[in-house]
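Might you be able to consider the sequence and fold that I enclose below?
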Amino acid sequence: MRKHFFTTLAFTALSFLATAVPAQQPPASQAPAANRGKPEDTEVWEPVPKIVTPGVPTSGPPPSDAVILFDGNNLDQWVSVKDKSPAKWKVASGVITVDKSTGNIETKRSFKNYQLHLEYLIPENIKGEAQARGNSGLFLASTGPGDAGYELQILDSYNNKTYVNGQAGSVYKQYPPLVNACRKPGEWQSYDVVWTAPTFNADGSVKTPAYVTAFHNGVLIQDRVELKGETVYIGKPEYKAYSSSAPIKLQAHGDPSPPISFRNIWVREL
């Protein structure tokens, strides 16, 4: 009788565990992210790029052969990333202001290799710290929904500490900027970028990698760096084959700080 009781008890306990353990597993949709690790695994904090005070800002008319992506009047060259409807960010007084509630926007046109100029403004009254302070991103090639693609980070990195491969001017989670050339919040800043798109073989393998050269407020911050793949928040970068050209994307980051603004955006196809 005593032996039968413990046998029954053990069988009942095992039956409970057999049904309880699967219920504790993450949903199938979350499993891949869990397997890639944590965001902190790919954060780099040292060495910290030295601070360089940029010279006189360069903001003038675009070259004669440039494709104008924003001239201060409207968002006719842009669409919403999530459904390709007309972009709904706010345009007033010659600038675009991010509307975080409507998500990322990208260009209607696709580009392969190009030179890009873009100016952005971190609000003077910006609040928050680290990644929650003026966060946005310039995606040099948008390869899918959300944040899929290759990102040059936009952030208020003026007296704002964060991981260096996530500060302003970084190729996100891959290359910190050579120096920190940020201006104060409330002052217009510029990116000038040369993008060389990756190419792929017929089987989807990488034929040639992507390269980025970038200037922040006229100061070199990325010197033809070879990208390791698409920029990702969690896990290691990897290449995913896409057609020879892709839209340019601007990020509506979900951090709680006031939205940033853009102006004078143009591109020259190379």
Q: What stands out?
A: Residues 2-23 form the longest helix (22 residues). The radius of gyration is 23 Å.
